[in-house]
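The records we work with from here on pair a chain with its fold. Each token is a code from a learned vocabulary of local backbone shapes. A record is reproduced here so that you can trace the correspondence yourselves:

_____
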Amino acid sequence: MDIKKLLRQPKVTDVTDLGALFNRLDRKGSHIDLRPAQADALEKLTQRREERDLVLKISTGSGKTTVGLLYLLSRMRASGGGVVYLCPTVQLVGQVCEEARKLGIDAIPYNANESTCDPKCTAAKAITVCTYDKLFNGRSTFNRSDMWLPTAIVLDDAHAGIEIARQNFTMRLSGSDAEAVVWKALKGPMAKYNPSGVAKLEAADPQAIFEVPHWIWRNVAAEVLPKLAALASSDSAEKALVFPWQFVQEGLETCRCVIAAAGIEIAPLLPRLDLVSAYSRARHRLFMSATLVDDSSLVRELGCAAQAAGDPVVPKNDRGVGERMVIAPSLLHPTIQRVDVAALCLKLSQQGHRVAVLTKSESEAEEWKNIGATVATKGEVSEAIDAMKKGLPEPKFVVFPRRYDGVDLPDDACRVLVIDGIPAGDGLIDKLDSGSRSTPGGARSRLIYRIEQGMGRATRSHADYAVVLLSGQELANFVVRRDVLELFNPDTIAQLKLAESFEQGAREEKIPPIEQLETLMNYCLRRDEDWKLVYDQQVRQPQAEAMKRVPDELQIKLAAIERSAFDDAVVKRRFSGAAGQLRLAANDAVTDIAKATMLQTAARYLMMADDPEWGGVQAAAVDFDRSCFRPPEMPKRPRKTQDMTQADSAIAWFRSFSNPNGAILALEELKGALAFGAGSSTAAEDAIEELGQAVGFGTSRPEKDLNEGPDVLWFVPGLHLVIEVKSENQKTLHKKDSGQLHTSLEWFERTYGTTKVWPVIGALMAEADSGSQFPKGTRVLRSAELLKLVEVLQAFYRKVGALLPIEVTPKSLQLLQAEFHLLPENIISNYSVQIAES
């Protein structure tokens, strides 16, 4: 019998209607119906089908994988061309393929060791699922002439894709012949530009890290290009050179170059998307992310259309992230250390709460292992995750080093999640950018994205809940700064602000800090009804409004200009036109740092065009941000000493923190660097500068900014402290130290004239070698006195924090500064000693 004869009107499913396509699939019982957010997303994607690029914002646990698979299935059936689903990790590739199986969709992994994809994928009968690494690498099989070009690509966790693409476009040289070639060419010109920096590199200072000015790198790149090419083509070439070399060899002179004692990194300003033809030539691209921090980064880094970023697909029924109690233990009380948090986590795991810890490196993971945690190394991650999901007796307390995505632990698989330390990237450029606001490409936003990705590992649906601990003083101090907090997603901001309220209440209780922390955590873990009501009121309700926020049109516009200028300059070699775009765009930038970034890039392009204007444009960038490269002909203009009073400066420093306890924590974090001898001189100089700001001094770093003058300058109206830092001296101060201080004083007199000035040395001791002849009146800021000053400042800011905001005035702070003996003359008399010369 021909059963089709029973059909009254045979119909063919419209493959362009994503909702109808879902209904025709042979789905498993777990996928009978679409969730409201999925249905809404599919409807909107269907309506905007003709657009090449689309951005989908949808919360974790709302079913974005299903949406992405249906989008690709539709594109594949309509066009008859192959399609690709990109994932950040191998584990996620497996999860996507399993989701496809439940939906009744053919999806086949394309693994790292495979040179060709499955024939069904080539014939457009199955979706190709692979990692970003498979597509974005210098020797990608997708770039072979016999490989098909995808008609459509889904980028899952698109911000993670940015990170991976950047890594794969970066050449990392360490302990190799290639590093030796580059350093040999760099050393001479860098020694002239930054002699103290080169000295620190040669002394293996772990904190010393510098970017090479673009005019120096242009000449060096031309010299090293043939030598690196020969090394890359040799049979013994290392992977760290061979794979990224395909991306950096063309346009090497326009790349960034960062040097440190640990090695050298070279990378283009932005990913060279034109060299990844499978991506750049795809007819349709869907960018998906649960936590889009900075929509403009998709435009700048991945070439997403500005229109798509400015008008994302946002399901109206998205119920948001799960319930998260976010606590920074160090903000609760600065005395809480990692070992205390680890011991509490061990106790909670023994009580039946599974605990996951995300660390930034294997060395930090070992510290947790010593407390009793199990470390899941690279090959053990999947096994550990499966065991936790299945509720097996062990492991209950697991550390995942450098895993801020791809670790999905829903429900009872993880009730306590710890992010230990700032999750900076692995590379030198990441380290440099993470420590500075004035970097291209939204480096700070990328760092915040890693934190938010990590926070989402334990809440995989709107109904899930977990406690998230931001462990370590460094991380707590980072998230509490106002300029950082405002960059988080609105739901995360609401969670952090709620945490501040709970922390304030806990501090009022007269119980040990670690017990306060445990008490707070148990409100969530034991499902306290009052906690749930408070969370709904202060987080869930505002979260619904936050989902409606409009993308920042100006930031997206400027990002599109940066991408366009990069493509014009580096790909098309139209340097002058690219520079012109950026110079005009700089006028629209809101912040000085954004203006400086654009002008410095414009100067780079003008220099490549041999346009003599480049020096003036570079000088203009320095005027907006002194951390930009100082061009050779620019007069060395020191920072003006400010007219702000000590009280005004102290208020400005205190108000840079969203949480009053943030100031206490920031001071606590300085103690390690101020215990001279244990760390690097760079860290000590950084700490002394911030300490001066906390006291209420204006500060500057002449030696760092101008390559001359003192390491640190503290100033208030009518008084300056010229400070040379000798943190590495173990027994005495030397004749060369006195010579440097004399030189710095001479520089100061030439620069600022004859104002009241104190010559100062920062060191472990006050004893000087015989015949060293330090300037008359030299004072020494010894480590012991500096640590005492930190303690007094912490007590001072505790009292400031207890005031009502309206009570924090210059007059009230001046009275408190006098009460705590923190006036400028007190600093000299109470916290410095006369140098002792033999």
